[in-house]
Amino acid sequence: MNKIYVIPYTNNEKCNSKSEIHNWCILNNVEKLKELIDQNTDIYSCDDSKEKISPMTFAMHSKNEALILLLLDIYERDLSALDETEFKKALIAYPKDQTEELLKHCKKEPTSKCVPVLLKNDNQSVPKLVYLSKILENKDDLSLTLIKKLTTKKSFVDLNYKVDDQKNTLLHLAIYYRYWSVFFRLLHNPKVDKKLENSLGQNQLHFAIGSKFSVGFHQLIDLPEYKRWIENPSYIYQAAVSGKRHLFGFILGEFLDLGKTKDEVVNYKFPVNLYFHYPNEIEGNFFHVFAAGKDSEFFTNPVNYKFTKEHYNSKASNGMTMLHILVLNSEMNLKSKINAIKKLCESQPQLLSIKDDEGQLPLHYAAYNDTHGHNLYKILHKLTTKVVVDEKELFS
């Protein structure tokens, strides 16, 4: 399991193409892109880089929804040629590709094994749909060669195309960047698969939770593809690592309504990232994930599901409680962290007296990790002395 993140494609270093359309997508210029579209410029062909990046990839990372919608209009119009078929994607043949040889081998009707090809002459009309057969009729049949030639050009229309190094789809990125119009259009397009994983095993629902896109989350769980979503603990992890309390509370409630016990939910094991202190990933439950995160809301305004002291006292794989981890937390700003520690110790004071597997209290962690003028140590010391009265314990 991994936290949701995206590596943006926003600069010329990522693009080895001399194509104007790539450059205007990178430079986020809607007017220039529209001019090229009106001039019937090829919007599909990928650049010359190793990654083979399409103009749409740069547009999706532009954070400019108007730029994306210009391209999406054409994608959807071109794909409408497939409406009466079972296909969801097609190769594109522009006028320069429509050689006599290609047209000779194209068929009007699909065969048992074939590839759809759109004969695209402009960016304003629906292209003509033809097919190239994968089954050769005779020794002079060049269909496979023609398919390979068009495929090598990386010129195709596919709304499920995995557009970047992380293998994110357009829907992944629409959710991550919260492109509302793009999201709803992709969501309601029957040619878009709503449950595809990227290279990290994250589907679109993981992205909606991890990027705190509540509207997208509720839209997705109503789809038949996610009928059994609440049987997958990875969604609890994404909610915890996102730090969005209301979303976490809803998901947790759904798991409990399903019949899961609180013990079962607390025993789900997730990765806990404390890279500043521990290069190797440790394993813990959702309490530990929250304690290592950026958001203090879980502590200052906790989800009220009445977990027991034993649940709060649980330890991660390296022997730390959630309070030990919270003291070490380098993601949260100091003011929020101190507030979170106070609130947690107010409701669960016993955590101040629980030692890790090496016999250290949270106070000891504060003593050797406080880099903010000893503010954290002073506060922990004041709180701890109310619970631990043995000075040997404090100064061991």
From TrEMBL:
Listed transmembrane segments: none
Endpoints of the signal sequence: none
Superkingdom per UniProt: Eukaryota
PANTHER family in UniProt: ANKYRIN REPEAT FAMILY PROTEIN, NO MECHANORECEPTOR POTENTIAL C, ISOFORM D-RELATED
Protein name as annotated: Ankyrin repeat protein
Originating organism: Polypedilum vanderplanki
